[in-house]
Design a protein that fits this description.
The chain has one domain: Jelly Rolls (Sandwich), CATH 2.60.120.620. It contains six helices and 18 strands. The strands form six sheets. The protein has a six-stranded antiparallel β-sheet. Helix 1 crosses helix 5. The two termini are 22 Å apart.
Length: 267
């Protein structure tokens, strides 16, 4: 069922994959990292912006043992091996705090950034808190995993900490994905997804994310090296060339795909 749903919808939720004790440890662990100033602020923020107080932590697996254990966890490997037909290659970790009042992230496709090819990248999104529409749960566009990388347009930075987004193609719709702490959402790198702001006054929406490339991928953006097998050993992949303002380089030509140009067969 997991493989079939993943192929048809572009995502799969594995409920309760991590225990309450494990996610509680993560809340405490990354909270201490924040106190130590280990976050990475990539966007300009005004005074009092929650994102300035709780910036996301990028690539913690490169210096933190708990993050590395998560990235190559046998449970994650087992689910991805089932839905992908082979063990993936691990390339990235991120921790988001998303405190009360924090902006979300506009709709996007992960492979716009990772540039994995052939194949695609895959996300494993662990809910470290219960999440719903009020505190800014993830939102997805089911079926969009079969789309190519789409052209970006300007995003509303009053609700998104990123300044670009992708429009939802005709015939598709955005769906919220409520989750309990310990659930993991696995999603295809072309799946359109994002989140709205945390509208609560007293609830965080923390998450720990691993990104991977499929076993048949031979290259990924240079920013995601070194790449790891799921046993923790390094594997050499090529550095993908490209990633412009719109799309990816294919055979030395920039592939530009506008939503208005998509054929009915893609919907």
């Amino acid at each position: 069922m997991a493989k079939e749903t993943f192929e048809q919808q572009g995502y799969w939720i594995e409920r309760g994959l991590f225990s309450e004790e494990e996610v509680a440890e993560m809340r405490d662990h990354f909270g201490k990292m924040n106190e130590e100033g280990r976050g990475y602020l990539e966007v300009e923020v005004g005074a009092g912006d929650p994102l300035g107080i709780y910036p996301r932590i990028m690539m913690p697996h490169r210096f933190d043992e708990l993050s590395l254990r998560f990235l190559i966890d046998d449970r994650l490997d087992g689910v991805m091996t089932e839905i992908l037909g082979g063990s993936p290659v691990a390339v990235q970790t991120m921790f988001y705090f998303k405190p009360p009042g924090a902006r979300g992230q506009a709709l996007h496709q992960d492979n716009f950034y990772l540039l994995a090819k052939p194949g695609t990248c895959v996300g494993a999104w662990l809910a470290v808190d219960d999440c719903d529409e009020e505190n800014g749960c993830l939102q997805v566009v089911p079926g969009s995993q079969d789309l190519p990388v789409l052209c970006t347009i300007e995003a509303d930075t009053s609700v998104s900490f990123t300044d670009v987004t992708v429009p939802v193609p005709p015939g598709m719709s955005v769906m919220p994905v409520p989750m309990k702490a310990g659930d993991v959402l696995f999603f295809n790198g072309s799946l359109i997804h994002g989140s709205l702001p945390n509208m609560t006054t007293d609830r965080f929406r923390r998450c720990l994310i691993g990104h991977y490339v499929t076993a048949d991928a031979t290259e990924v953006s240079k920013w995601y090296h070194p790449c790891l097998r799921m046993d923790g050993s390094e594997i050499e992949l090529g550095s993908a060339i490209g990633g412009g303002v719109c799309g990816e380089f294919v055979n030395d030509e920039l592939r530009l795909v506008e939503v208005s140009k998509l054929g009915e067969g893609n919907h």
